[in-house]
């Protein structure tokens, strides 16, 4: 068990120190006596006394007194002191959260107003250019008025974007992606798109080549031996016969026929 921050030599010194702290906090000796004498028969502890007791516990706790020492000064049990401390802590947390919500709402309103002002500044920064043109011959000319609007100042858009990021943080939303991640994904998208276009071009060129090709039908020479012999073409392993002046195949004669 940890030692208390302040130690006393006797219970009288402990009571005197606690009483001094409570008196300096604005309480009267009668108020202290009401809390110490609450256990007397017939004395009910109302809402006012309950709030006063919790206030006393908080003041003594701020004076670095332990739960046991506070219980001795106010003549309470340690369980009661612990319960009062838990209640005070809960009230403090609720007030803190309420204050944080008010502060968050004020910041959110400021960011929304800043975003609206930035968008209005972007619209106001756009410049309109009016050009008047004369069209037609002399005496029959017509006037053409052309209005061109230039892009606004992109600095206002950056302010609006940062304001949206701050609004997302205040609302607890997920943080927006960083610009470098967006640039990387955009570059990857362009690369994939370029590859897809190249593949489509290659496929189209291949189809065009197939459509423009001349079909070739191979003739089976073995199925037409007479035509092969008339043309003097032979696919046998023997040496091909010599051709005459007209391109006709010379007949093979035996030695006896010369």
Strand content: 5-15%
- Which series of helices and strands comes N to C? HHHHHEEHHH
Strand order of the largest sheet: 1-2
- Average pLDDT confidence is 76
Strands, total number: 2
Question: What are the low-pLDDT stretches, counting only 5+ consecutive residues below 50?
Answer: none
Number of helices: 8
Q: Between the first and last Cα atoms, what is the distance in angstroms?
A: 138 Å
Radius of gyration: 52 Å
Q: What kind of sheet is the major sheet? A: 2 strands, antiparallel
Morphology? elongated
Structural class: mainly alpha
- Overall helicity: 55-70%
Structure overview:
The longest helix has 47 residues, at 78-124. A two-stranded antiparallel sheet has the order 1-2. Helix 4 (67-74) packs across helix 5 (78-124) and helix 5 runs antiparallel to helix 6. It has 258 residues and is mainly α. The model has no long low-confidence stretch (mean pLDDT 76). 7% of the residues are buried. The N and C termini lie far apart (138 Å). It is built from eight helices and two strands. Among the domains are: 11-76, no CATH class; 99-202, no CATH class.
Which structural traits does this protein have?
single chain, 258 residues, mainly alpha, two-stranded antiparallel ribbon, 8 helices
Give a brief outline of the structure:
This protein has 258 residues and is mainly alpha-helical. The protein has helices spanning 11-24, 29-36, 47-62, 67-74, 78-124, 154-170, 179-212, 225-230, and strands at 128-135, 142-149. The chain starts with 10 loop residues before the first helix and ends in a 28-residue tail after the last helix.
